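All the exercises in this workshop are built on plain-text protein records. There is nothing in a record beyond a sequence line and a structure line. A learned vocabulary of local backbone shapes supplies the integers on the structure line. The question running through the whole workshop is how a given chain folds. Here is such a record, shown just as it appears in the course material:

***
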Amino acid sequence: MYSDDELLALSALQHMVFCERQCALIHVEGLWGENRFTAEGSRMHRRVHEAPRSATRGDARVCRGLRLKSARLGLAGIADVVEFHPAGENDSRAVALPGRRGRWRPFPVEYKRGRPKAHAADRVQLCAQGLCLEEMLETEVPAGALFYGRIRRRTDVRLDAELRSRTERAARRLHEIVAAGLTPRASPGPHCRSCSLRDVCRPEATAAAGRASRYLERARKEAVRATGSPEEKAT
């Protein structure tokens, strides 16, 4: 269990899964950069959070800007939307809502500007929200949804055992990176093209420097093996 002082931003998990170096640049070094993608994402989230904090959509109650926390994962953040759908009185996954009759099942919805992605970063962030809700409400949250602005529709996500395990590993790794205070070397790839921190990160130069230092270290070790260690020479 983590204390309140040890909680890290839930949204950092999305950065973690996308790129560990990007995550450290933002959450360890405190750097940030804007590009078209981040600006569009910020506008979408502002629109979501400027809407009424509580509303009704069909039979569901819609809560925006709900604060989330998990002492087990060491995370805290704000959900874009949590829907509460009516459920039967005997539904073990349902909870009571203040000022509302009946039982309700929570369903987190995270908003993203683009379209569904091959990597799991968005799904991990959504799963972390579900795990926070489970801990806070003492219930089960088996599913949620990602709303993508480019295609203007939801993608339902099952919070299955594999995704939960990946989310828990990402949370542990996030705490390791922040605690160590070290920024991992770059691993250049297609993801770098959309990164707002590309000019700060300089992935190609950083990776080249890393390869050079590893080459020199290997050369040093090979020279030691060929000539004998300093300890062997002393004897």
Residues 209-217, 229-235 have pLDDT under 50 and may be disordered. The first helix runs from residue 12 to 18.
